[in-house]
Design goal:
9 strands; 9 helices; alpha+beta; Beta Polymerase, domain 2; 2 domains; two-stranded antiparallel ribbon; about 50% helix; seven-stranded mixed sheet; about 375 residues; about 15% strand; Methane Monooxygenase Hydroxylase, Chain G, domain 1; homopentamer
């Protein structure tokens, strides 16, 4: 019976803007989390993290030109916070709207004095579906602002590298930091695909061993997941490409070499994904052919047994008839009207004829290859 | 039995131009509505609406260079009105023909001194299909003319914003106003897709719980609706792109940033739509596999019962035969020619053999996994 | 049984050039019609039509620079006529070959001093297929030559407009006249699609009401027709695009605006056509699922009836057996070996057991949902 | 049963280069034919053919600048011949390798002082498959070398035109001659498609009249042939396009006009081919639906007959049972326990009930539409 | 039953980077092999091979500008070795990461002073799947470094050509050597496709002779293999194209001519591969139609036999009924209530009627064409 419960996944339903809302309207979702704000300041030598209660005077706090800053914001439920962005930092209100409407595709846009980017952080949910969170980036010369919906994320490794000062991360500016975070997110897609690849293997094992209808449900669920993931990876690749081609001086050539690497990863992901989709389709074909074959097998059993015994039963029926002689004088009825019945060895002859018919049919079916 | 009535939708049949009509012929549909004309004049400080009986001297009424005007025309049944456009405003007659032939795809075209654009306003009809209305735009430096087929529309929110003076709408010129109206229409597509997404969920629930043939009808109707919508969204996206790339000075760079946002929305719509189409196809595959599985189940029941009882009935038939001895002398016929019948416990032995045959077959089918 | 006769359409088999024919060889099909030639001369004020017997001295007849000429040639069976074109008018022989080989795709080509174009004039034939005729155009500064295979065509409306002097047609030169003719032909495609759209509706009605195999035949025929039409519309669109991008001064910018309109029509046609193709495929899926469902229904009836009655018949068979006692002394055979048979109410008990079995099975099938 | 033998075609298995062979290695296939070499010299006035034993001093023999030469080589089995090309004529060894490895796609390449091109000459083989021969061209200013695998070809018409001096062929140089040969080969594709189009018609006739499984085999074979042909036509079109865009002065503008014509032919071929492929797929769908319909018909017959007679047989079985009374005193067994049996007209009543059941069922099936 | 074991192939599971790993981290797989390093030095006259224990001072060892060097590294398990590359040779750490993460797609990248490329070496594994090894290239002016995972490879033929000094290989520099190795790898794909083409032929033979479900398994396995191979060939082609378009002076124009040849090979491979995929799909269609046809055949046998014998058995059942007369006086029961039974020749008439029914049905089925 499979586990059809796995097929149906709960979905995150985004709150669509009320039609007619002013474009650039900053939407505060009442169910979203209150922001936790961490301010990382770092350069080659120093590293410091401060938790902020709010963003007031953030320009002053990030004014030191010899230091890079990362303002790590988790939770979007603060209209006041976005006022700082629009009024103090002069961020375009369409950007702020995109940050608060958390259903956007990955993209990269250049604005006067800053870049804006969106990534999507994915997780395999408990019910086998995909959790899908938006991560937004505002990158200026020496400050990177990131926005997440939830407190948990998969970016701790980058925070650790930043703290430990490993690699280029402290000295290569906000562009490289943004890259490092995006790359982390893309890397997590590999784990997801790798998990699904195992699921696909498991489905195939089942297909060979004992195919039941759960094969269909699970393959369909996998295909749906792949369709969802593809909707993220394609624009992710386009985003990387846009970053590669940007002439913004906020992205150094050094960083672009790394972006090229992330771009290659996206292509590799698409490659794996498309192959998995093709193989999943192939499995469905296989499953359908297995069903058809089973049908044939069932029908063969029915046909063989019916074809052999129905005629025999007919013969038995013949000799079970009660035809009789009626004495024309007395009107008395006596057996005797079916000569075969009273022949010596009539019974044995009949059994022999029946056996003969059965054998002929078995040979016929054998030669048709129905016993294979 | 599903609700096949939902599958068949009434369609709007457009009146095609008589082949050979002069190109640029302004077609007045006798069934269309008489125009209601509202003239909005607005700038940063002022806002005024006047209802006009006709368009006479419209150039004079919209002559103030410090004010923007919106001529909101609903209903197209007035040849005289179009004469004003062709004679007084020098609008190209192909443009006027496109406005009156209300089956055009979304597009954007530049002309000497004005821009021309078409959007399509959609609504889910009572029968589950799509209502489809053409909205045309003629945009000059400080006047925007819009043309609709019906009196009702989904643009009241923009009218309210205009009146309330919220956002950029009063100060950003006719380009921004045109954008605001178009964006409104695109936003309404999201509601439509969102509604259909719920339908798709409902179909899936049914597919898991009690799939019947209505699954097929409803999925097909959904697919047809998606095909219709795609025919609108693709050219809509191209239109937005054409506006983005136009060098017309009637569209400011400021407005283009908003157009870029609407362009992104179109892509997102296409994305959602294509995913829904793929999932709908996936559901059809699933439904067909469910039908095949059911068939297998039905055939299994038939085969198991027939295969067990047909041979048993044959055996019963055998011992129901009337083979008899005939006294060669008296010619008298007496039972006695089928030795098994008169054996002690013959009946019990026979019953036992029958039970044995049944048990063997049940084990055979069990091992084939037919009882699962 | 549908109308399979509609599925098979007679086809026009073109005479392919004998392989190895000299390129540029002007082929005169013996079965083609003798040319009827009309010479239209027109300018803003004048309009005149003359029937010509042949094309001799055509250069002189069309020498007046203040007048435009249309040489309307219907029927291609005249080698002499093509000699005039090659010798007197210096038309490239590949052009003449293309005119006489009437199986070419729509195209537009520029030559030294003239343009060459091909359109395809379509008609729904009696048997439901497509009649397909080639119309060729040679356009010089002030003369337009058109070539058709048959005498009848769908261009009379243009001739009338020319005569009546309505619209631009008399004053806009040969480019506009060529456009008007081509546009006429494209317009006629709309009527064809509109007819097929009604056929598609009719097929759907049948699909819902009483689907039989004619659904399949008719859908296939429709798909084939759509495939044929697509082969015409795609290159037609490319042709329009080529005209739009030409730098030939024989096509004025004024005319190009009209060509753009015809280009839009082609795109709209392709749009409609692709949607219809998708819907036709969708109908085939639907029909196949209906067949499968029917199969299920048939099998359910068989299975229910067989499963109920076959076991009952077996029981009846049991008690129809003739097991008997044989007196060990006299060898006399007497009934009495099947105790149930002689029990009081044995018959009634048996009938009751049979009814019980039937009821249990009916409940079983009921719960499986087979009676729905 | 169709003619499955037609489905399986013998294939030409090319000898792949031993991996690791030096690039540019001239491979001499031991099974290939010894070359027959003809040297055509021609100009406006003269025409001469000489058979050559080998290519020694070919530069001298083709030195006259006022004459064009065609060196027509059929058979590739001569290492010595290729030495002349590499040493005396300085042809790049990769070119020579391509000539001897006869499995290359059509292509056109420019080299210092000469052009190199490949065409593929096709023939419908005896078994219904495609014979596939490589024709290679080396074109210098006034010499054209052609290489074929076999002695027979489809180019005699060109040789004749050359001899007769018809058309441009003697005066337009080696580029035009190469075009003429290539065009000939492309023309022969039309005959092939035309033959297959007739096959497709024949399949369709069969599909309507008496579809059996040969429909499937023949359609599949046709599809495979179309796939093979597509592999030739696509690169052929690209080749033509490459020639059109070449800046080599070995191809005159005059010749390019003819090449454009051949390019159009390739597009037309692709068009026809894709349509035929779509129609073939359509036929397979149709065939599968016919099989399903037949299945339904078969099952209907079975179900109607079984459903009617199985219950009737059960009733007959009931009254064939031997329930009896046993005298409690004598233990004597007498008939008499099944009251219906001894009722007057019991037999007739039973027959009537049976008839009633049959009639009710027939009405039931009739109303389900199973007799149609 | 086929050989389902062939369907399931073991897969190489790559170790994905731990998410959050520093980009450019050189990963040393503990299971990889310790490097074997061979240093080839060669020019027109000399050729020398030295086995090196490690890469220390490799710059000095390869310092002679008049000599080319090939550093052939097999086995990647040496962190120290990669330190030489990063510190002494200043290779970008992303390049080194790509070399150690052996799951990259073929690519070509230019860096300051060197080029980097990846090829994938394929082998048909024992279980019918594809073994897949990464070969990386770092090419400087006069040194080529290659990196492989395993000791065995398919490149010995190139080593031999290098030693023997055949062809261009000693004099054309590192670019040509890199080409020669890459070309070798591409050539090996031809052998793989050629092997699979034979498998496809074998499957087809089986399809015609005795199709069983192994056809399905084997075709699916083949399709999966083709999908895997396509994932290698497409980027391989792109790589070749990137090399063709590079402006790096490390790749000479002379070498590019050979690269063009390899590029053509890639296209040819893709061509063959896509055709094989199409044919494989075609075979699945065919197999499914064969299953359906078989089903029809099975059902026909069942239907013919059941339809003939079930009614006959019913008739026999009728005359096996025990209707009797009961003497109203004595209550004695005597046969006699079924007049047909006592008619003279009643039995023979009945047999005749049965035969008649059978014959009528056989004629009916015959005319339906069920015996064909």
């Amino acid at each position: 019976m499979g586990k059809p419960t796995r097929f149906k996944q709960k979905k995150k339903h985004y709150v669509l803007p009320e039609p007619g809302t002013t474009p650039g309207f900053v939407y505060i979702d009442a169910n979203s989390l209150t922001p936790k704000i961490s301010l990382y300041s770092f350069n080659t030598d120093d590293f410091k993290v401060v938790e902020l209660a709010n963003l007031k005077n953030i320009s002053e706090k990030t004014a030191d030109k010899s230091t890079f800053y990362w303002v790590d914001i988790r939770g979007l439920n603060s209209a006041e916070m976005f006022t700082v962005f629009s009024d103090e930092l002069k961020i375009h209100k369409l950007v702020l709207e995109d940050i608060t409407r958390t259903y956007h595709r990955p993209k990269f846009e250049e604005y006067e004095g800053y870049n804006f980017a969106i990534s999507r952080m994915l997780n395999i949910a408990e019910d086998g579906g995909l959790d899908n969170e938006q991560v937004s980036f505002i990158q200026t010369k020496n400050v990177l602002y990131t926005f997440q919906e939830n407190y948990e994320d998969c970016l701790d490794a980058v925070r650790k590298r930043l703290k430990d000062g490993k690699g280029n991360i402290r000295i290569s500016g906000t562009g490289y930091l943004m890259y490092a975070l995006m790359d982390m997110i893309v890397d997590s897609y590999f784990s997801i695909l790798s998990k699904w690849s195992e699921d696909l293997d498991a489905i195939e094992d089942k297909l060979l061993a004992r195919p039941d209808r759960s094969v269909m449900y699970e393959t369909q669920m996998l295909k749906r997941n792949l369709i969802s993931l593809r909707r993220v990876i394609w624009p992710e690749r386009d985003k990387m490409n846009d970053i590669l081609r940007t002439e913004s001086d906020l992205i150094t050539d050094q960083t672009k070499m790394f972006i090229k690497d992330a771009y290659d990863h996206c292509i590799q992901l698409m490659d794996m994904l498309e192959s998995m989709k093709e193989i999943a389709s192939t499995n469905i074909d296989m499953y359908l052919s297995i069903i058809s074959n089973r049908m044939n097998e069932i029908m063969k059993v029915l046909t063989i047994i019916s074809s052999i015994f129905i005629p025999l039963t007919f013969i038995a029926g013949i000799y079970g008839m009660n035809f009789a002689k009626q004495d024309p004088v007395t009107g008395k009825i006596m057996p005797g009207n079916m000569p075969e019945l009273y022949q010596e060895h009539g019974y044995e002859y009949t059994l022999f004829v029946m056996a003969l018919i059965a054998v002929v049919q078995i040979i016929f079916f054998w030669r048709k290859g129905w016993f294979k």
